[in-house]
Amino acid sequence: MTLLAHAIAAAPPASISPEGLRGRPLSWSEAGGLGLWSTDWAPDIKLERPDALAHHRLVERICAAQPCLPVRFGTAFATSDEARASLDKRAAGLRAALTRVAGKSELALTLLWANLGGSAPHPPSMPEVDGPGRRYMEARRAEHAAREARRARSESLVERVVADLAIERQLVWHETCTSEDVAVSLAVLVPTEQALERKSELARIAARFTDVVPVVNGPWPPYTFARVE
Amino acid sequence: MRELTAEDTSLLELVDRLLNKGVVLAGEATISVAGVDLIYLGLNVVLAAVETIETSQERRAS
User: Fold this and answer.
1) For residue B1, what is the DSSP state?
2) Across the interface, do B36 and A46 touch by the CB < 8 Å criterion?
3) Which residue of B has its CA nearest to A7?
4) Is B46 touching A (CB cutoff 8 A)?
5) pTM for the whole structure
6) Ordered per-residue pLDDT tens for chain B, 62 residues
7) Less crowded by CB within 10 Å, the N or C end of chain A?
């Protein structure tokens, strides 16, 4: 019997519906004062697209019942003993991470460039140049300058969000310019009972920027902050 | 290439978290189960959602 892992929580397990993915049994493997919630899976059943989102809904359900650390989707153990051994090996780090995220939820903010052809920062206009080699080099220089301008603007957007949200740095994670469209991808860890209020605040702050379109998501389980040192 | 919509973005952010964040249990984690490539799966989740959005928009327009 394969176990498809969902979340780690402190023992004892909360009382939740014993239904895992696709209606299969949800099981609890305990070691080192911790436990792993997982679905009893069979190696011959292939994961399909809806399973990823079903895993998300299940992790949400577990996190609503007790503080938990989401496990990366697709993590599997051949036996319950293997799952327990893995928990035991990292118990101290997992307990510390669990303490860090207990009672907290993740909000996500994505800032998309409002108009890729217009609003994204551009370098100064290119002077008239002679010769294909020179034109090529000037074009490369202009592209590099445009990338640097976008990156600098993205970082300044992050600074504004963090300052206006008045949140500790360690509760913020971000990446900038992850694709042509995305200026900023940012996650913040907030107390669950304030999550909706903080989400509105985040949306209000991001709506002030004229060169990006904000997309705010969550509250979600603390996926981004579930790392173990 | 068309620009990302808010719906695409939300789904991409969520799928990114499911596949790239969360606890990795040392030495035991797999990136696939039963031979399914999860990166491919993630892309398919996004594509499926985009198709759904486009279908519902077409339905509303007609």
Assistant:
1) -
2) yes
3) B23
4) no
5) 0.83
6) 456 788 888 888 998 898 888 888 754 444 454 454 555 555 555 555 555 545 555 655 65
7) C
